[in-house]
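The instructor's notes for this session suggest beginning with a concrete chain rather than abstract definitions. Hand out the sequence below and ask the class to guess, before any prediction is shown, which regions might be ordered.
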Amino acid sequence: MPDLETLLNFLRAQPTFTLFVVIGCGYLVGNIRVAGINLGAVAGTLLIGIALGRFGFRITPAAQSVGFAIFIFAVGYQAGPRFVEVLKSQGLSYLALASVVCGAGVGTAVIAGWILDLPPGGTAGLMAGSLTTTPAVAAAQNAVREGIAVLPVGIDAEQVILEIGTSYAITYVVGMIGLIVAVRLLPRVAGFNLAEEARKVDLATSNRAVPQLQARAYRVTNPSFLNRVVEELAGELWDGFAVVRLRRQGQWLDLRPGHTLQSDDELCAFGEARLFRGGFARLGEEIAVPADFVQPAALTRVVVARREAVGVPLADLRLSLQHRLVVAQVRRDNLILPLEPQLVLQRGDVLDVIGPRENATALAGRVGPVEADPSHTDMMAFAFGIAAGSLLGLLGITVGGVPLGLGTAGGLLAAGIVTGWLSNIRPDIAKFPLAARWVLMEFGLLIFICGVGLQAGSGIVETFQRTGIELVLAAVVVVVMPLIVGYAFGRKVLGLPPVVLMGALTGAMTSGPALNLVTTEARSETPVVGYSGTYAFASIFLATAGTLVMLIA
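After discussion, reveal the predicted structure:
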């Protein structure tokens, strides 16, 4: 059996193999659940990288730069449409909340860095790790490499980059676990019950999966329903998403305002199974579904892109009545939103509709196009977008001997935002299906994190011995302070409902695991509305915060 040194030499000689082993093991470690909490792939890869970094492993700067570029551009692409559209609609409240939370986090980290007298780079690492924002650590290290951050005389750039990485590595796990614990305790301290608050908001809570759909028909024989206006029955017997048609004496009638039911009318419905358990059968005897009512039903994803559909409540589209389509779910930034008639649509939302595919395709002129073929990704736009972002990052001016500019991180982020926004305005260009986007962003992130972990491993013990306990305590404060400030601001100033505010706070901290905890305890998808409102702003703010902290701390 080979000894440890033989194994290490083999791994050093096979960098490609080693890189993917680190990422794979990172997923394994990240999936381990302790007390109901799993670390996730980023923390797992970071820990594995630190362990190997102690033995002198590294990845090439070029590989890490490629991962960094893919990740930052993808962050901008994903956030771009929401950033622009939310600003134009109801986003001022969410913009204000994200600004307050991010500002409180960054400000607390800077003050803690001054109090602890952290070495150059330590404050940026503390901020990025405590707020679990990987783009911030990437931007901070990149600011040092490109000379945007002015370093004290005698301080080596590689030493500062190492300090950023080690401080980030120490505080990341603290920040992630601390945020989850704080989110769990905040409702108890503030004196409200998440589940009860979710019920008060009265949003649907069971839309994580495509619903079970049925087609059934009834003949109107119950005298209590005769001469009743069909529109009045809609709220009483079925929801606004079911496809319901009226047949009289063998002829289909369009449901128009004022239509009343007559004896022996036939009402045919296509919708969720629970529709028929809610009183629909009270109309009369069940009959066979007419052959010409049942049509081929396919799941189609329609992207909200048309101006006339943006900012409109879902019910106002009248998809069931006018297009005979059932809305199964609505996704925003890969999050499933509560399915309710009053849900206001935003550009880039994806509607999962079930019904004849030609009916869904006909929505292109009114709502938006069918989602891009998942097998096609516009790699040309992706490549030129990253190239343009890199060039944009090179632009800058010098003020008082200090170079000022976006840097590569800012340039890539800006290019991603513009590309993502243009893709939503013109869905025929820069197509990045959700699955492809996720793979690119996740892969780029983990390559970068692997490099950070390997680099931090060489100095993490020394950093912990020097400032470890103080750094951990500072990380706890940096996690808690933005939540307290954000909750007070959201309730007292913005007046947001607690359950929506909790989701918005997790979005402002860009923490998916914390959102999962909130939705689980609320037994509702309502917090997702708040998360999607602040996430786009926070992801952009925090991606630039690394550079900002390196300039002021």
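Then share the key points. Residues 203-210, 399-403 have pLDDT under 50 and may be disordered. The chain has 19 helices and 13 strands.
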